[in-house]
Every structure is written in C-alpha cells, then in structure tokens.
Specification:
Length: 180
Amino acid sequence: MKVITRKATMKKIVVGLCLVVLMAGPALALNMTPFQIGFAGTKAQLFPQETTVIGLRLNLVASENFDVMGVDVGFWSKSIQMDAFQVNLVNLVETEFDGISVGLLSQMGSVSGVQAGLVNLVRHDINGVQAGLFNRADDVNGIQIGLINRTVSLRGIQIGLVNLLAEGPLTFFPIINAAF
C-alpha cells in the first residue's frame, strides 16, 4: 500500500512540474508571469528581470524584476516599480512603490501607502505613513512615526523622540512635530 501512495505522490509532483513548464512558455511570450521564484537575483530565478510579475513573487533568497504587482514575500526584493503588499527582510524599489511594505530595511524612490520597518528610506516623497526606528524622506505628506524621523518638507505630523524638519518653523522638535 505504501508503494501505491509513493507512486501517486510522484505522479502528482511530475504533473505539477509539467504544468509549471507549460505555463512558462506563454508567460515568456507575453513578458509577464503570475508566479516568480527567486534564489539569487537575476542569476537564479524562474523568469528574467524584464518579466513583469502580476501575482506572487517568492524571494527564497533574492528576486529582481522591473515591475511587480501583487504579493512579494521573502528575504531580498528588488524592483524598479511595485504595486504590492510586500514583506521581506530587505525591500528595494528604485522609483515608485504603491501599497504596504514591511521589512527590516526598506529603500524606495517614492511611496504611496505604508512603509513599516526598522529603517525606512525614501529618496523623494512619501504620501501616507512611515513607521520604524529610523525614517527618512525628502517630502512627507502624512505621518512619520519612529524613534528618529527626518524630512526636508512636511505636510503632516512627526511622532518620535527626535523629529528633524529641514524646511519648517521648527527644525528640531521632540515627541510631536507638525507642519501644514
């Protein structure tokens, strides 16, 4: 009886792998895929970085795709643009991120949504909430919550032990800082 069960399990695995291979052809032709698995960035992932992921990207170690829409989970995530729910140890998005990002380190060009983690870095603007131990953004339209918050311009509130605002009536103010 165990032999039959093992054979049935093997058949299911083989059929599943065949389906993945069959789906890979059309996905490459359309330059998009509903599923990506990354092991070592562009060196070892199912589809090349030019392939748009619309669905689930699983970063077993690292993945790199230009555009991602959907769910992005794992260890190391890198993309140019992303519309997603993202949970990784490291999140890197070069230009625009829309959605919710959670990680130890998040570095992005601009954010619309929520960015939460230990260290949150945004090169340009954030529209939404930034929460972590250290938060940095050039322009904040919303709320920064953290131990240390730093921004150039603020239309909203900073809540933290150290709140730094380069262009404002108060360049440093502890606990709560606001500008509108």
